[in-house]
């Protein structure tokens, strides 16, 4: 909890990627959907509900692409595949402090990724 210093502070950045196999010259878009946090901070998802008293408080989970918060429910063009084969969409997840204080507990969120190929 000492990592959080006030609203807007972040912790536990974790990179991950969506791995694809595409044809050459394919334009790839991704859309991330989930329950936005009540704070309305860009890219911050609400935490999943847990049994009473076990959910963390004062934080949400923020998703980023190229170090920029992802606008939820919006197609993002992530690139064009130049050669047949593997293509990786790099993303990052991190905890984002939304409240004046943070309390420990379960801190999971759910997002759905929709891919569009052109």
From TrEMBL:
InterPro entries: Adhesion_dom_fimbrial (IPR000259), Adhesion_dom_fimbrial_sf (IPR036937), Adhesion_dom_sf (IPR008966), Bact_Fimbrial_Adh_Pro (IPR050263). This is Fimbrial protein. The keyword Signal applies. The lineage of its organism: Bacteria, Pseudomonadati, Pseudomonadota, Gammaproteobacteria, Pseudomonadales. It comes from the Bacteria. Belongs to the fimbrial protein family. Keywords: Fimbrium, Signal. It comes from Pseudomonas fragi. Pfam families: Fimbrial (PF00419). GO terms for biological process: cell adhesion involved in single-species biofilm formation. It is found in: Fimbrium. Residues 9-117 form the Fimbrial-type adhesion domain. Transmembrane segments: none annotated. The keyword Protease does not apply. GO terms for cellular component: pilus.
């Amino acid at each position: 909890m000492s990592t959080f210093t006030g609203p807007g502070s972040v912790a536990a950045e974790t990179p991950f990627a969506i791995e694809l196999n595409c044809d050459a010259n394919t334009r790839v878009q991704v859309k991330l959907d989930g329950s936005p946090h009540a704070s309305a901070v860009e890219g911050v998802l609400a935490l999943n509900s847990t049994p009473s008293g076990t959910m963390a408080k004062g934080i949400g989970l923020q998703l980023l692409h190229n170090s920029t918060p992802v606008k939820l429910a919006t197609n993002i063009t992530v690139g064009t595949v130049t050669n047949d084969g593997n293509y990786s969409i790099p993303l990052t997840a991190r905890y984002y402090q939304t409240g004046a204080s943070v309390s420990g507990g379960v801190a999971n969120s759910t997002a759905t990724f929709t891919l569009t190929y052109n």
